[in-house]
């Protein structure tokens, strides 16, 4: 897991989303609806739904919004839209690999928007499978240490089923196999740990360092993709400097 800063990427994504609560709530509502349709409305028996609800709560999504999303998926509030998951793959400035995960009810609209965004910001949309092989799909949990011994917390995580831990900025980054993410989260919470983030992530196997104008252009592309209503998550193998100057 060394060689890149996934938590830095998470923080960057959250900073972009913090002032767009309406947009992030809409995306969380889609995830909840899809989770309900795939595994039912009971979060105790549906790990994907449980994780979606926990993430919605961490983002400050009101309880009534969560309940309404579940009701839409079960047909109790008009049935809602039928979303499907589509993974878009492409390249950005400097040859970086990009994966954009969409939940959409209109694949033609979404494909057009994604293709236009790649083209506008110096990238190109690729074929299915063109960059996915460069990423590992894992569960990732972010736990603030809050003064606790990182070795102690790391052992708790390994005992709970984690496969790797990494300390970064007073935070423990815990990696799991995707299918046990929810179980590990529950065990860590039962041990009294605070969970700041817990999601399925696509982690790059290697990274491409960008600087200067290429870094500026790449960030614009990534943020533009994140701003699309249908895009839930954006992943890249780009590595950015601590500060990227704003283009004049």
What would you say about this model in short?
This protein is an alpha+beta fold and 248 residues long. Helix content is 43%, strand content 23%. It has helices spanning 6-18, 21-39, 47-58, 63-74, 107-120, 150-160, 181-190, 212-227; strands at 84-91, 97-104, 124-125, 135-144, 164-168, 171-176, 197-204, 208-209, 231-236, 238-239.
Describe the 3D structure:
- It is a single chain.
- This protein has helices at 6-18, 21-39, 47-58, 63-74, 107-120, 150-160, 181-190, 212-227; strands spanning 84-91, 97-104, 124-125, 135-144, 164-168, 171-176, 197-204, 208-209, 231-236, 238-239.
- Residues 1-5 have low confidence and may be disordered.
- It has 248 residues and is α+β, with helices and mostly antiparallel strands.
- The chain has 3 domains: 6-74, Arc Repressor Mutant, subunit A, CATH 1.10.10.200; 84-133 and 205-239, Alpha-Beta Plaits; 135-203, 2-Layer Sandwich (Alpha-Beta Plaits), CATH 3.30.70.
- The chain is built from 8 helices and 10 strands.
- The strands form 3 sheets. The chain has a 4-stranded antiparallel sheet.
């Amino acid at each position: 897991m060394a060689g890149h800063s996934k938590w830095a990427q998470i923080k960057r994504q959250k900073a972009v989303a913090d002032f767009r609560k309406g947009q992030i709530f809409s995306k969380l509502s889609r995830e909840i609806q899809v989770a309900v349709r795939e595994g039912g409305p009971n979060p105790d028996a549906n790990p994907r739904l449980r994780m979606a609800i926990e993430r919605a709560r961490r983002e400050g999504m009101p309880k009534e919004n969560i309940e309404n999303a579940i009701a839409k998926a079960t047909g109790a509030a008009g049935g809602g839209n039928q979303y499907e998951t589509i993974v878009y793959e492409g390249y950005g400035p400097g040859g970086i690999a990009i994966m954009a995960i969409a939940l959409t009810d209109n694949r033609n609209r979404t494909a057009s928007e994604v293709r236009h965004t790649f083209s506008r910001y110096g990238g190109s949309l690729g074929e299915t499978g063109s960059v996915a092989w460069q990423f590992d799909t894992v569960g990732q949990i972010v736990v603030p240490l809050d003064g606790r011994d990182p070795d102690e917390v790391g052992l708790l995580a390994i005992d709970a089923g984690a496969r790797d831990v990494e300390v970064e900025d007073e935070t423990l980054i815990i990696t799991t196999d995707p299918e046990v993410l929810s179980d590990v989260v529950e065990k860590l919470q039962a041990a009294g740990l605070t969970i700041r983030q817990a999601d399925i992530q696509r982690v790059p196997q290697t990274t491409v360092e960008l600087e200067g104008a290429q870094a500026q252009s790449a960030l614009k592309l990534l943020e533009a993709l994140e701003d699309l209503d249908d895009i839930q998550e954006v992943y890249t193998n780009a590595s950015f400097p601590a500060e990227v100057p704003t283009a004049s």
